[in-house]
Sequence to fold (461 residues):
Amino acid sequence: MTEATNPQPHPRLLERELVSRCLAQDALAERALYDAHVERIYRLMHRMAGDADLAADFTQETFIRAFERLEQFRGDSSLATWLHTIAVSVALNGMRKVKRIQARTEVIDDVPSLATEAFRFTGDLKARLHAAIDALSEKLRPVFVMHDVEGYTHEEIAGSLGIPVGTSKARLFDARAKLRLALAAFAGDHIV
Amino acid sequence: MNDDRIDELLARGARDYNEPGPIPRDAMWARIQAERAARPVAGAPSRSRPMWIWPSMAAAAAVILAAGVIIGRRLERTPAPVQSVAARAKPEPAPSDSQSARAAAGPAAATTDQDSLIQQLRAETRNTGRRARDLAAATHAPARDAQQAPEPSLAYHLVVLQHLAGSEAMITAFRTAARRGEMDAQLASWSRELLATTRLLEASSATQDPTMKRLLEDLDLVIAQIVQYATHGTNNSEELDLIEQSITTRGVIAKLRGTASARTSAAGT
Fold:
């Protein structure tokens, strides 16, 4: 009996070859790399930015930087993790700029602490939850969005954010606690 | 409202938080391409190359072309499956005897055809890269018959030999050019091509030999630094010192020469 052989190379090997071809400025390989990762990156960028134009800008910048720095990718993590590290950094920096611009152009109250703020009912429960997610800190929001909204594992989050897995879990716990508090207070006022 | 109900509301409500619409995949790709094209590569090529660079380039050319000739001869003697791999890996014509002779003739001959010389070196580098890719593909292709399965070790041995010669040529050219602040885009592209092949070989059976594995890792680090330096094109003496330090402390040039020479002998050439 002949031994079954696996015709498919290991994914990491394929990834390495793809990167090598991109470094050799192979246009088809660059597009293949983009196609393989753009959906997940764009979805995350949209969840983080809440705006299609910003999400597109962040996604584009992520890939531009990735192609510029591809020679620095050493394969210690997966290419997806490496791309997400760039993407999260681009999104957080981008959102900071957006907030600075907004702060200059309109009067914005500081985001209140969810635990102490008296809730102002402006919509339904979902709208309140989304506002509460928006108000999460820069450390908690990416973890919550990646895990509970986009379904990333703690390992993926840890790799992308450059934090230990335990920290990712702790941040998710804190984020959920803050959101629960927000919902409980809201529900206490408006839901029987 | 109890905790379970809150958790349920939380999970349900979070799902459509900033829900993305259709992905503008092609539009984004077009803008990425346009943006990349618009961002200039620092250190654009300078057309006037000083004469002093060419002696070292000519010597490097002699090394790499000689290696190419050796490899060509060895590949002719390898078993059929490897030959076919080598044949597929040669879409560009091999350097002619006159070209090899001209490159090997020394600085005087090399200076007569400077642009074609560097192009020749890069063409050899690309040929090596293609051979490495073909070998990687052949290694992972399913073997139809155990007796027909290619034995990649000799072919890898020869591709590695040429890659080492090419790397030495590029590093020599880089050191000479960088000290004079004469970085150009050709050198940046050449180093990128070599980095790609280095990484491909790092993932290949060539690394079954621990000495070769270490050498390729050292080479990866040094060439990656060169790629970055050459691409950014800034004449930063601090960065240059770091690269020089990497080359020196890791003994890359000595190892390249030692390994290439030992392997050429081992190959019976």
Notes: Chain B touches chain A through 50 residues (CB under 8 Å). Residues 49-266 of chain B form one domain. Residues 85 and 134 of chain B are 6 Å apart (CA to CA). Chain B has one domain: 49-266.
